[in-house]
Design brief:
Number of helices: 13
Strand order of the largest sheet: 3-9-10-16-13-12-11
Largest sheet: 7 strands, mixed
Helix content: 25-40%
Bound molecules: adenosine-5'-triphosphate
CATH architecture of the largest domain: 2-Layer Sandwich
Amino acid sequence: MVDMATIVSLCKQRGFIFQGSEIYGGIGSAWDYGPLGVELKNNLKKLWWKSMTSRLDIVGLDSAILMHPRVWEASGHVEGFQDPLVDCKSCKHRFKADQVSGKKCPDCGGDLTDLRMFNLMFKTHVGPVEDSASLVYLRPETAQGIYVNFENVYTSMRKKVPFGIAQIGKAFRNEITPGNFIFRTREFEQMEMQYFVKPSEADKWFDKWKEIRFNWYKDEIGLGESRLRFHQHDAKELAHYAKVAFDIQYEFPIGWQEIEGIHHRSDYDLRRHQEYSNKSLEYFDEATKEKFIPYVIETSEGCDRTMLAIMIDAYHEEEVKGETRVVLRLNKSLAPIKIAVLPLSKKDDLIAVCKKVVESLQHRYVVEFNISGSIGKRYRRQDEIGTPYCVTVDFESLSDQKATVRDRDSMKQDRVELSQLKNYFLERF
Ligand code: ATP
């Protein structure tokens, strides 16, 4: 398996991901998505959004990051979203208590402070006065924006249980030990869906969503099945709101780790918001004339963590004619650049043909036009960024009105009429 350093370096060299604020020496655990990274990430988000909201029983939402501070009291985060931490008295390094065994610092052997609880929520203030009345938190999960809008959504959209609300957005956690590139950061994006069900049907829907979500990684994202598995939370791991929880894990270079949590949250959140807001969040079932607080099945995917899994899974090195070829075998729907158009030489008449090809394709696909370096080098660059097809215009193209299309994975080349290129790609994307 590829190591993390290789992925970090490729991401920087090829414009996927840069260290945040790099010219100032960087800021711990913040990363910026470059031109190719943002295309890939947007493609991932679009795929997820479509997989959720194209269902008749799911609608979307985009709620605010800043929420009423009472939300986080009701949700249990003020009280319960904490990690135990210890500091080293000598080197000042900070650890989650469960990462150290014994009473000595794992880095320098120094003495450790007593264990303290540390709340992971970022605090800030609204308005000019920094008093306790102006305190707000940056949301540590997008889910609460969905719960507090439950009634707005189901009445305005005339939704009937079972139905779900999907949301993509930033979340913030003041992690004690961020690291491993974009695996654990303090600012990250989540793609969450909360599915509201009758209590008696919660177990059935939990099993259904487990299956749907596992298949999403396997079939839609194209991650290797042998590197995917479920992990069930034991009593110690369960979050304060969860009744049952399964993680979908991916085998990263750092071992098996969670990329998505699937949680049976019972009626915990809606019941707590009803209690704290004094607003009824009961649902009335017209068919059975029953009133109840729906149970929630949550699917919670980390967008950045999935990005890392995608890069690792796609990365391949292979021997071609005695040389090492690096190729990102990205799923075509995720690839940041779909087609590269390459003139064999910098001659004006070849460039003119290329420009026409670009114009005919760019309204439908993200196309790159590249004239610098040998054709071999340009193929290598496109392989490394996962471009599924390269179209090469050569001197013969001027007479036969055809171009060579090279397939990233098989490296097979087809000679295709310029007028047929559009159809050729329609069949392949
Ligand atoms: P972990 O145990 O790794 O801290 P978690 O169980 O706290 O994760 P959840 O609260 O279930 O995570 O969040 C859902 C998803 O959000 C995770 O599966 C992960 O993909 C993503 N996620 C959570 N915390 C971070 C983080 N600090 N950086 C990047 N992604 C994160």
